Structure formats: C-alpha cells, structure tokens
Amino acid sequence: MRCVKESVWRAYLDGELSPEVQALLKSHLAACPHCTETLERFQETAQWVEAHWQTLAPQDQPSMKEAWGALHKRLAQQSTLGGMIMKYTRGAWRPMCIGALALILLVGLFGYAPSRALARQFLAVFRVKQFVAIQVNSSPEQLEAVGQQMESLFGSKPEALAEAPIVPAANPEEARDLAGFNVRLPAYLPGGSHLQFSVKGRTVYAFRLREETLRTVLTMANMDPNLIPAGWGEAHLTVELPAMVHITNGTVDILQIYDPKANYPEGIDPQILGQAGLRILGLAPHEAKRIAERIDWLSTMVLPVPANIASFQEIPIAGEQGILLTPRDLSEDQRRMLLWQKDGVVYLVSSNTSVENLVQVAESMF
Amino acid sequence: MSTPDREATQSGMSTVVVISPRGDAALLAGLYAGNEADFEALFQRYYRPIHDLLERLVGDEADDLAQEVFWRLYTRPPRADVGLKAWLYRVATRLGYNALRARRRQKRHYEMWASSYPNCEEGRILDPEATTEQRAECDLVRAALARLKRREATLLVLRYSGLRYIEIAQVMGLSPNSVGTLLARAERAFAVLYAEMKTAEGGRG
What we know:
Structural class of chain B: mainly alpha
Oligomer: heterodimer
Radius of gyration of chain A: 29 Å
Helix content of chain A: 25-40%
Order of helices and strands of chain A: HHHHHHHEHEEHEEHEEEEHHEEEEEH
Largest sheet of chain B: none
Helix content of chain B: over 70%
C-alpha cells in the first residue's frame, strides 16, 4: 500500500475513518516509518492542544436550576406582555400586515367578527389599492414573538372612538341601506342559496404613536433609530372602517369592507417603517430594503405569508390583482382565502371549497 | 410547566440529567407547537455542554451567552429539518467567538487583556504563584484562540468539546472528509500563535 495523504492521519488519530480504512492504515503503519512519524507528529500536536484546552476547563458545573430559573423568568416576562395583537390573529396561519404602523392597525380591525373563522383571517388595511404577498420564513412562534414585542412597545390598547354594533339584515337591500354602499352578491355560490347578512357600521380606532416607540422598533430591526426625526413627538393614529357587510351560506364567507383607511403620521417616511417591519419579520436587510423601496406603502396591503404555514398565488379577479392564500393544512378553521380590492371596496372570500370554485364565486360577483 | 422530572433535577441534585426518550426532532416539533415542556427537555439536554463550551471561551460571561443561545432557540427556533444539536453549537460558537474577539479589541494591550479574566484564577490552585501561572496560561490560550481565524477557532472549539467529525461538518457546513485536514491545519496555526505570544510575554517579563 502506498502512503496516504498526510492529513488522513489526523482523521485516523480520531478514529473517524471507516473501520476498514482504519485497519488498512494500521497495517500500513507497521511497515512505514515515514507515516509513523507523521502520525506521531499529529498526535503530539493534538495532545498539546488538548492539554491547553484543558486549562480552560470550568471548575464548577453551572447550576441548572438557576440557569433555568433565569431563562424561564425572561420567557415569562415575554409572554405576560399579553397577546393583544396575536390573540386576534391566533389563527391557523395568522396573516399579518407589516410595518410597525400596520402591525398596530391590525389590532383595531377585529371588532367585526361575523364568524370566528373569518375573523381570524381578517386583515388590516390602509387605503387599500393593491395587495402584495411576501414569503417570510418566520415560524408561527417567531411571528407571535414579534406581535408580543410590538404590543409591549405600544403599551395601551387602542381606543374605540366609534364602534357600531353588528346588526343582522334580512336581505341584500336592507344590508345595502344599513351599510350605505352597494353590496355585491355572487351569482354562483356552492353550498346552498340560503344567505345570512350582517352589517357593521362606522368603526374608528385610535392609537397613540410615540417617537421613542418608533425608535425602539427601528432598533429591533437593527436599523438606525435616528431615521425617526428628533422632536417628532407623538401622533394619534386613526383607523377608520366606514362599513362592512358579511354574507354567508355556511360554506362560503364573503366580507365586503367599504373604503377602509388609516391616517399616516406626518414626518416619517413609510418606506422606513415598512423596511423595519420586513426586517423584524425575518427578511435579510438587503431584501427588506429592496422590497420596501418597490412598495407604495400608503396604498399597498402587504401580507407576510410564513412559508411553512401557507402558500400564496396571485390570481386576477374582475381585472384586479387578487391574492389567494392557501394554508398548508386545510381544515374548518384553516381555509383558503381570496382577497382583492375593486373601486375602493376590499373583498375577502373564504371557504374550504376548491380554488376553482372560490375564483368562480369571486368572479360571479361582478 | 412543572414536571416531576424537572423537580427532581431542581431539588438540589443538580447532577441529574433528564434524558427524554424523545429525539431532538420530536422535541423541536413540540416546541413549535408551543409545548414548553419540550423546550425544557431540550434545555436539560443541551444546556450543560453549551455552557461548558462558552465558559472555556469567555469565562464568566458564559451564563449570559448560554441563556442567549436558549432564548434564541425559544423565540427563533431553527427549521424542523435542521439538526438541532448542530444549530445550538453553531449559535454558541458564533456568540462565544464574537465575545472573545470583542474583548480582544477592547483591550489592545495584552497585559490589560489578560487581567480581564478574573474567573481564570478562581480557586484553581492553592499555591498563589501557581495561580498566577495558571491564569497566565489560561489567558494565553484564549488570546491565541481569539487571534485564530474564525473557522479555525470554531473547528478547535468543536473538536475539543467532543463533537464527531460529522457533527462538526454539520455545524460548519463542511464536507466531513475535509474536517481532518482543516483540523490539523488549525491545530498547527494555534500552536504557532501560542508560541509567538508566549515568546512576546517572555520578552516583556
């Protein structure tokens, strides 16, 4: 047998080669003074390193009890911050809107819960002109942690400046009169033609947004907190949902939201907050920057879709770009959802039916 | 939260290590599902070796860094198909080496740098002279590690923490076949750096 490459002896020394090769090399050693010398050299160095590494050996074992106690305390502090945001979005696959601003907007948008499943899938909005879905690799737990962090930052709950009750309507005409906009009905609807209508009138939530809070958000995103102008102070942020109508036949849920909008605080570039949101959600800095620059944050509803929870695809509906979200595991609580906007109204159709049926329902409304 | 296993561990018999029959992947899946007992089982399984590695690298900063490793595991766990052990060691070596380098940057002069490791002397040797000697030894080893390239230092730390080549390869994203070669090189580089520093120290003393 010929001599092997020198470095192989290092692996031999650690017994890291296959038993056959170890045996072969061992028999070679007996006949080869050169390789024996190489091996000895490696051994000497390794023993020398080992001896020096041992000088670093800890004297005492760490106290597992103390270590767990400290860690547990930190975890507990995190979770007692409550789940103001996440409690509302604790669905199968929490669609969340992003940007520090958008994250808090989310809070106010669950006052209307015509059906539990739908409420979980409900989305926050600015004045929505378009939807963009972005795949993020965050786990549900990571998203939850983000939500909790945000909640702890914003501290107080949003204040309802106006909140209309949910009232049933007997038919589309009554729903239209209550809501004040022209409610669209699908011509095609799988699962029966018995429809239930309910309407929620004007709802306005207000949030207080502080300079320090926004700086902290930027810091969390590893961005320069000084992007928030010094002396910016604070702003009151309002989210207004003029009217919503919910229609269901038990199989398909349709939500129509008339002209939802939020005021945006002056003096802060929405791109910066958008970028911070993307980074907090786990996008790499250059990705976050690139995407943030391409989005019109004042008219685009951005949906971060966790890759391991749901997938998305773009589907045109009535000439507008719609987004179809499909949870990885479909169930009664985890349903497909199709959303789009047209002429200032945001539409959201949710069901466990097939994609084709869902699209057909959507198209049949126009 | 409370399990009989954990109570046994916490009641003073701190050497008891709870070995769960469930594998890392199952526990990680449990963590994803929000099962805190599974997180604790992972903590029990890996805290000690991770802490040991960090304490060797950074001394008394190890408590904080080890907590950070498990904090990250809880708040930002790796994907389910990633080897958990490799992930933990990767996070730990990265944090440890960064801290080691940061200290080195903070203390430009070696003498100052060496004195920043009070833990090295903790009751190691009764003879006061030997204590100083031991401490100097300990500081020199760390200083040499800090001056190694990140990859070389990581390799040494992982190998001498007892990881197999296949595990080292997973942590560092290497081919298992290249570990021996790189390890031999890292050991040589370490010995050279150490010798240089030892000489420099002798020259000053």
